Amino acid sequence: MNYRGSYKKLLGNAKAAIMAAVEIYNKPMFNYRDECVMILLLNAWELLLKAMLSKNGESVFYRKQRREPYKTLSRRDAFSRAERFFPASIKPLPVQRNLELLGTYRDNAVHFYNARDFGVVLHALAQTCIKNFRDLLFEVFAIRLEDEVSWQLLPLGPRPPVDVVTYIKGAASVRPSSAIRQFLAELSRATDELKSANEDTGRLLTVFNVKLESVKKIGDADVIIGIQNTGTDTGPLAIIRTQDPNITHPLRQAEIIGRIDTLHGVKFTSYTFQAIAWKHQLREKPQYCWRATEGVLTRYANDTVAFLKSLTSADLQAALTDYRTYLRSRASRKSSLA
Fold first, then answer.
1. Is the CB of residue 162 less than 8 Å from the CB of residue 215?
2. 177 is a domain residue
């Protein structure tokens, strides 16, 4: 099996995905425009990152687990592995934060369906995402994306487009939905992080005018004022940030067991934890579990303890019963294969 994949095939699919995103966005009538474009942009980046890994002789698969099919890297893991192959002219952190914001929208799109004019923020993030893609594609593969795009587009619309800076300032003054406030607060947090690290905020979000002649970076003071006045950043969105797992996921399994001791009168053991983790797929949810890419170390967030304590007695019994059935079924399959 070719663990690296074909970087040319990956690269071709990455270009196809980014071009599909551009084409769909520019259609005059498309009811699911933003959602489709975000999916395609993130898919294009995942493929581009894997093409970079493949080109440099790196595997695009996780380590094979016994009796499980091969699994290709997620976009986040592909990004972390491909960072060292970024050219000096493109710093990974702003690009990563841009993709995370797009991912937040993709994963929580239902919360934005009634958000009037919020598309201007997505448009600015998407434009920056495509610009970052274009630059990385040229620096790593010497391919010019603009050679395949005609910018002779006919802009149509019932009213002039809303400027993203104007929108953010307006959102700060009229108290929008909790989802909008939380998203803008996340944008503000990412901007502050990049400015503190002296990184280029223009790779997080850049505002283009309709002629693509000039740009305004999100780091400009008037934009920051607009974002920071959005109010509380709590809300309904599930936001996953890339941070040091020693801070975000400090607990080992034994420490979790020690913190709980008993749950609904049942002694909390490693078996109990394994049953709940299997039943609720905790190891597949980054907000609860972090696993080293080598597959050796597994750590859990403090929120895992809170989740476990929130389970009802019925939840606990269902996890134990179903896990017991699963283990018996697995043992039966193994014996039949022996």
1. no
2. yes
Judge if 155 and 277 occupy the same domain. no
Return the beta strands (E) in the chain as ranges.
Answer: 206-208, 215-217, 262-263, 266-267, 289-291, 298-300
Contact 85, 53 (CB under 8 A): yes
Residue for token pair 């690009």: 95
Q: Are 206 and 216 in contact (CB under 8 A)?
A: yes
Q: How does pLDDT run across 275-299, given as a tens digit for each residue?
A: 999 999 998 887 788 887 666 788 8
Band of residue 207 on the pLDDT scale cut at 50, 70, 90:
low
Choice among 5-9, 162-166, 253-257, 331-335 with the minimum mean pLDDT: 162-166
Q: How far apart are CA 194 and CA 100, in angstroms?
A: 14
The Cα 300–Cα 320 span in angstroms is 20
Q: Which two tokens stand for residue 132?
A: 């970052």
Token pair 């009168």 is at which residue? 265
With a CB cutoff of 8 Å and minimum separation 6, the contacts of 140 are 52, 55, 85, 87
Residue 240 domain-assigned (yes or no)? no
Beta bridge partners of 208: 215
125 lies in the same domain as 65? yes
pLDDT at 188: 83
> Is pTM, for the whole model, over 0.85?
no
